[in-house]
Amino acid sequence: MSSPAPVGPAPVLRRNYLSALENVAQTIGTMGPTATLGTIIPLLIGKTGNATWLLVAGILGIFFLIALNITKFAAHTVSAGSLGTYVQMGLGKWPGIFTGWSYVIALTFVVASSGLSCAFYLDLLVVRFTGWPGSLLRSSLLTSGIVLAAWWPARRDIKLSTKVMLVVELFSVAVILFIIFVAMLHTGQGVDRLQLELSGATPEKFRLGFVLAFMMLAGFESTTTLSEEAKSATTTIPKVMINCLIPVGLLYLFSTYCLAALSHDHSIALDQTDSPFDAIAASIGVASLGWISSFGVATSCFVCALGGLNAGSRVIYSMARHGQFWPRFGDAHPVNATPHRAMALICVISLIVPVTLIYAGVELASGMDYLMQVASFGFIAAYFLVCLGTPVYLAGQKALRPVNILIAVVTLAVIGLVLVLTIYPLPPAPYCYLPFIFLGLVLIGCVISARCGKNPTGPVRS
Question: Could you tell me if residue 1 is inside a domain?
């Protein structure tokens, strides 16, 4: 009788595989600039009014400080575990595990909410061109199809998925900027005094917009999950984060000012229309560009789902390889070298959750909002713990400077304020339940990690 074949090492992610441009594509894809321009910024203008541009500028400054904290780790550590690994290096095992699960939940709900958002905009196009009314079956089929469409390139090859993200997002942003440019030329007015004078701005409006604005730039750090696959990761990843964050933030600032000005000139309530750029295009006599913009926002949502799937699956993969999740999820695909099991898990959740909401009678727009709120808690918690762990980590490396302490304190104060504003005063139902749902999911993850024991199958490369 022949002896069993020896068991080789578990398949891992490809090393030194991704270029700087492909890391840029991952970052841009997860941030979803076009989706943000088409959904979050119009809602933000509706909440904050003429002070929105100032709020966006402040949020950009805060995210720059968050990036400075994250780069302290990314410049020395290579791990698909990303923020969870960083916090573990600074604060220890269980804060790191808590962060890892917070980040996984954030990215999983990004996939789910992006699937719903893409389905929402595609459904608008179906109604526009066919006149067929919406239905539960069509909404669920569109959402499921989008998630599965994101799964295929993500599982196939990380290079393929990043190329898809970059091409689609560049096209979508170009369409949106063209509409803004033509509309601003049409009005012939470059100065909007209402905004410059902060007309009608109040602390309460600022508070209402603060939490929503915080989500505009979330995901800029997702390229850190590709660090095990990136070439010259410790130099490439920090540069990619900063070099993507600043231009995208400035794009949001410019677009916010223009959209608010256009809403004044054309009397458009941006937060009360399903497709803001469709309304703007129609107001300046180029309605044909409207449906193209809706298609652009839909494709951007698809790209955001793809970016969240890439990043979230790699965090799960890393946690499994370090004994914090079931070991089978720590194996890469033997041919594609992608974390295929982790991707499948995220896709299943991202199918079940939104389809359940649809058949529960929740409108697509409301479902998008609920899922993004849960994702926001994950990002806020992860960012807070990373910034808390940064000075501790630097002190252990004997590299702590007063400026590092100042950056950490200011960032923690602002993120803490955002966290407080999300739960106090307690919002009406069902929003009041969402923080507890998020916390319950994190605790379930921590229980799973505790049961998985301490059997890492691969070390963190530093």
Answer: no
